[in-house]
Amino acid sequence: MNTPTLVASLIMAAVLAVLIAFFIGRMMRGWQRRAQRQVEMIGMLPGLPDTVGPALIGATRGLYLGSTVARPDSPAATAGSPSWLDRIVAGDLGFRSKAVMTRYPEGIMLQRSGASPLWIPDDCITAIRTERALAGRALTFDGILAIRWKLPSGTEIDTGFRGDDRRELAKWVQEDAA
């Protein structure tokens, strides 16, 4: 390789590295701005209760997919369906993680690895259903458990959970219907 070709290759590599760093920085800045916009809308999450009753549905292992803002009035959504791509990034609600979900008379406990536990009070739950898509994750079957609940700030969100064993999700939907 001659010297002019080597110099041109190094310049191209440097330009490419600068472009990649620029675009990654813009993506991170967009994620931070989105989180700042959502902080006021989300507000404080419900705290963990001091005591809970016996488990109504035992521990279900799976993957916490994230939470999305429930916007049935958005143009992309049909009557009552969630905006499955509008992921919440405020706090640690936007990060996928392994989780164990348990139902108590007082609410639902989502113990997530690498994130704080998420408590969904029973009186805030408006619906529990299965979906094909939520929080940017799409499946070919109804394998995502979507819990629609209202935050103390008044915002309705959908929290997604994909169980390791899809058959266990039927217990959650039946329990909500009862």
Automatic annotation (TrEMBL):
Membrane-spanning ranges: 6-24
UniProt keyword list: Membrane, Transmembrane, Transmembrane helix
InterPro entries cross-referenced by the UniProt entry: PH_bac (IPR057446)
Keyword Membrane listed: yes
Ranges of residues in domain PH: 43-175
Membrane is among the record's keywords: yes
A Pfam family of this chain: bPH_11
Stated name of the protein: Transporter
Taxonomic source organism: Mycolicibacterium grossiae
